[in-house]
C-alpha cells in the first residue's frame, strides 16, 4: 500500500517540489493549493490536488475530509508548508497585518494538524513535518512578523513532540535558509499590501527591502539552495525509524544555529543586524 501525505502550499517552490518528488518516490501525495487555477495545473501534471486555504477554517475542514475520502481514512504524514513572509519593521505592523501573518503561518497549520492527530493516534503511527525556517531560530530586522510566526511554529512543534512521545507519531521541524522559490515575490505583495511605506520613519530603508525583494536570481548568493535540498530532509523525516526533531538546510542555518548557542546576545545581535541590513 502507498504511504499517504497531505501537503499545503503546492502551487510553487518547496511544496511543489516536495509533492512531485514524493509522488515519484511512490507516495500517494495530496498536493493542495489555495487557488483553483493552481489545482487545475497540478492535476494536469498528474498530481492529486484540491483546494486548501489556510486562512479559512471551512476550507481546511473540507480539504481534510477530502483527504480521508481519497485515502480510505488513513494518513501517514502531514507536511505543513504553505506560508508567506510579511516584511516590515514591527512598529509599522497593524493588528490586521499581524493577524493575516499568523492566520496563515500558524493558526491554519495548527487547525489542520489538530485534525490529523486523532487520525494518526487511531491508526497508531504518523509523521508531522513542519516547514519552519532559520528565522524560527534567529531574528532579522524587518522580518518581525514572519520571525514571530516561525517562532510560534517552533514552540508548538516542540510541545507537540513532548505530548506525542511514545505514540509513534513523530514531529519534525525543517529549518531552511534561502531556497529558490516564489517566496520573495509573494513577500513583496504582502509588503505593498500591508505597509504604509510613505508614512513610515523607515521609508528609506524600505527602498532597500524592495530592492532586495526585486533582485532577480537567488536571494543570498552563494548560499541559496534549490528546493530539492528540503525534499531530501522531508524524505528522511518520513522514512527514518528515528526522524530528527530538527533538520537544518543551507549553510546560513548551520551557521546561525551554532552561533546562537555560542555567542552572547549582544554579539549575535551585531551580526544579525549587519546581515539583515545587507539584504
Ligand atoms: N524560500 C525560502 O528561502 C524559505 C526559507 C525558509 C523557510 N521557507 C518556508 O518554506 C515554505 C514554502 O515557501 P516557499 O519558499 O516554497 O515559497 P512560495 O514559493 O511562495 O510558496 C508558498 C506557498 O504557500 C502558499 N500559501 C500562501 N498563503 C496560503 C494560504 N492562505 N493557504 C494555503 N496556501 C498558502 C502559496 O500559495 P499561493 O501561490 O496561493 O500564494 C504557495 O503555494 C514556507 O513555510 C516558508 O516559510 C522558505
* Strand/helix succession: EHEHHEHEHEHHHEHH
Count of strand segments: 6
CATH top level assignment: Alpha Beta
Oligomer: single chain
With strands numbered from the N-terminus, the spatial order across the biggest sheet is 2-1-3-4-5-6
Total number of helices? 10
Give the names of the bound compounds: NADP nicotinamide-adenine-dinucleotide phosphate
Report the C-alpha radius of gyration, rounded.
19 Å
Show unreliable segments: none
Judging from the principal axes of the Cα atoms, what is the shape?
globular
CATH architecture: 3-Layer(aba) Sandwich
How are the elements arranged and paired?
Elements: E1 4-7, H1 13-24, E2 28-31, H2 36-44, H3 57-70, E3 77-80, H4 95-123, E4 126-131, H5 144-163, E5 169-176, H6 183-194, H7 203-214, H8 228-239, E6 246-249, H9 251-262, H10 265-278
Parallel strand pairs: 1-2, 1-3, 3-4, 4-5, 5-6
The protein binds NADP nicotinamide-adenine-dinucleotide phosphate (NAP).
NADP nicotinamide-adenine-dinucleotide phosphate (NAP) is lined by residues 8-15, 33-35, 52-55, 81-84, 104, 131, 133, 176, 178-179, 181-183, 186.
Amino acid at each position: 500500500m502507498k504511504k499517504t501525505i497531505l501537503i499545503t502550499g503546492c502551487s510553487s517552490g518547496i511544496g511543489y517540489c516536495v509533492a512531485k518528488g514524493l509522488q515519484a518516490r511512490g507516495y500517494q501525495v495530496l498536493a493542495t493549493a489555495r487557488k483553483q487555477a493552481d489545482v487545475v495545473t497540478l492535476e494536469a501534471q498528474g498530481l492529486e490536488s484540491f483546494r486548501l486555504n489556510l486562512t479559512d477554517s471551512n476550507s481546511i475542514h473540507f480539504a481534510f475530509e477530502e483527504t480521508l475520502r481519497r485515502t480510505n481514512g488513513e494518513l501517514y504524514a502531514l507536511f505543513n508548508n504553505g506560508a508567506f513572509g510579511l516584511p516590515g519593521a514591527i512598529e509599522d505592523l497593524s493588528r490586521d497585518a499581524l493577524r493575516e501573518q499568523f492566520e496563515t503561518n500558524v493558526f491554519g497549520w495548527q487547525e489542520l494538524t489538530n485534525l490529523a492527530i486523532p487520525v494518526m493516534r487511531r491508526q497508531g503511527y504518523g509523521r508531522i513535518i513542519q516547514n519552519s525556517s532559520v528565522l524560527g531560530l534567529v531574528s532579522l530586522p524587518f522580518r518581525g512578523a514572519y520571525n514571530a510566526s516561525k517562532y510560534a511554529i517552533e514552540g508548538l512543534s516542540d510541545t507537540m513532540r513532548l505530548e506525542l512521545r511514545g505514540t509513534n507519531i513523530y514531529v519534525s521541524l525543517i529549518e531552511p535558509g534561502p531556497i529558490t522559490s516564489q517566496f520573495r515575490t509573494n513577500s513583496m505583495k504582502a509588503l505593498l499590501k500591508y505597509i504604509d511605506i510613505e508614512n513610515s520613519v523607515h521609508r528609506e530603508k524600505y527602498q532597500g527591502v524592495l530592492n532586495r525583494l526585486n533582485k532577480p536570481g537567488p536571494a543570498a548568493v552563494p548560499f541559496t539552495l534549490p528546493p530539492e535540498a528540503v525534499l531530501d530532509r522531508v524524505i528522511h523525516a518520513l522514512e527514518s525509524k528515528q526522524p530528527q526533531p530538527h533538520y537544518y538546510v543551507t549553510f546560513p542555518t548551520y551557521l546561525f544555529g551554532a552561533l546562537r548557542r555560542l555567542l552572547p546576545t549582544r554579539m549575535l545581535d551585531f551580526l544579525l543586524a549587519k546581515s539583515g541590513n545587507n539584504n
